[in-house]
Task: inverse folding
């Protein structure tokens, strides 16, 4: 009979195992001392990861994994499986290892939802590993009884990853695959898809998804509407943008300041400030109060189109509501008044600006002074009005 191995402490065994350069010899140390010494979990975890870094040692790692006293945690399994993936071999090795552990092995391990999501996240973050993420998702969703929330979360994760990489076709394919699995997409799914479609200028398809979202009874995502509105405005489809803005209320979505400002900015950018003024009227009727961005956009848009009187009206309304405009907003109106020879109005706005504590730009001063100097009768009065405050 062979003599029993000497009993050593788990701490001593850990030191011996971690200092051994050859992982197979380290494994032998654990095996030999197993009758008398129970290794510390940290010892086994360290050895497992070292064994998983070489393809010829992988069977030993899997065997050791099944010898653990308790089911391995996701914190151990995630780096182990990623180590297998980094073996510079075809992804079949990684997938077969996963399959043997969780699907078709002699005693499959329970697949923790967090492990699956973290593993898919790690794979999808690297372009070269993204195909492996797709294979893994197909494997688990077809072979394991996953709960619907986990199926949805895992698909949303890869839909988002594909969309961020510009692979809209892959995102749509995963979206349609959810239906084949009898799992309903949620608001996040639609938001991810509409954003990716708009980035690819497929705005009409994105708008169709919003309609589908409504018909399926899924609560509307305001961010998805913002994305589509912005895309429509950038494509100069302002009529469609305004139509969608009007339809939102009928769909149970109350447009907020972001939705309205998106369309207002788009209209002013395309030289249609009067249409933007109509949207401002709509938003006020619906109970949405314009903010500084709303007024600044409309005032500047009106000034660019030469509608200085109307711009001044909105400027007065803005200040009357306690909003202090940026000096550039004042400058647009002052410059416009000077352009059409309205000396008194320009000087009054300059004085008003000073009263509010807004420092005028040097160009604002220059515009007013040049305009005043052309009218010799009012030079002294206007300068005293501006300076003597």
Result:
């Amino acid at each position: 009979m062979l003599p029993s191995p000497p009993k050593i402490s788990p701490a001593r065994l850990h030191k011996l195992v971690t200092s051994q350069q050859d992982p197979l010899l380290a494994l032998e140390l654990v095996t030999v001392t197993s009758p008398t010494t129970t290794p510390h979990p940290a010892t086994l975890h360290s050895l497992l990861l070292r064994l998983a870094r070489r393809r010829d040692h992988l069977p030993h790692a899997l065997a050791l994994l099944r010898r653990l006293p308790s089911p391995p945690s996701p914190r151990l399994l995630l780096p182990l499986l990623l180590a297998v993936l980094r073996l510079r071999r075809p992804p079949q090795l990684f997938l077969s290892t996963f399959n043997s552990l969780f699907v078709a092995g002699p005693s499959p391990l329970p697949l923790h939802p967090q492990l699956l999501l973290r593993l898919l996240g790690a794979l999808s973050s690297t372009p070269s590993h993204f195909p492996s993420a797709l294979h893994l998702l197909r494997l688990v969703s077809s072979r394991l009884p996953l709960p619907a929330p986990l199926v949805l979360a895992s698909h949303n994760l890869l839909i988002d990853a594909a969309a961020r990489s510009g692979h809209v076709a892959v995102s749509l394919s995963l979206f349609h695959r959810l239906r084949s699995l009898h799992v309903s997409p949620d608001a996040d799914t639609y938001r991810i898809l509409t954003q990716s479609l708009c980035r690819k200028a497929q705005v009409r398809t994105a708008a169709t998804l919003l309609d589908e979202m409504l018909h399926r009874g899924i609560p509307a995502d305001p961010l998805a509407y913002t994305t589509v509105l912005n895309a429509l405005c950038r494509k100069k489809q302002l009529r469609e943008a305004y139509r969608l803005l009007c339809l939102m209320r009928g769909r149970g979505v109350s447009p907020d300041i972001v939705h309205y400002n998106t369309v207002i900015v788009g209209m002013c950018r395309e030289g249609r400030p009067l249409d933007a003024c109509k949207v401002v009227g709509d938003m006020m009727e619906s109970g949405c109060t314009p903010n500084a961005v709303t007024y600044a956009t409309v005032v500047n848009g009106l000034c660019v189109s030469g509608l200085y009187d109307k711009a001044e009206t909105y400027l007065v309304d803005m200040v009357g509501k306690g909003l202090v405009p940026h000096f550039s907003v004042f400058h647009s109106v002052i410059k416009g008044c000077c352009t059409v020879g309205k000396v008194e109005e320009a000087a009054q706005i300059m004085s008003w600006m000073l009263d509010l504590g807004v420092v005028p730009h040097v160009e604002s001063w220059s515009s007013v002074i040049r305009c005043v100097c052309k009218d010799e009768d009012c030079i002294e009065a206007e300068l005293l009005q501006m300076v003597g405050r």
Observations:
- The two ends are 109 Å apart (CA to CA).
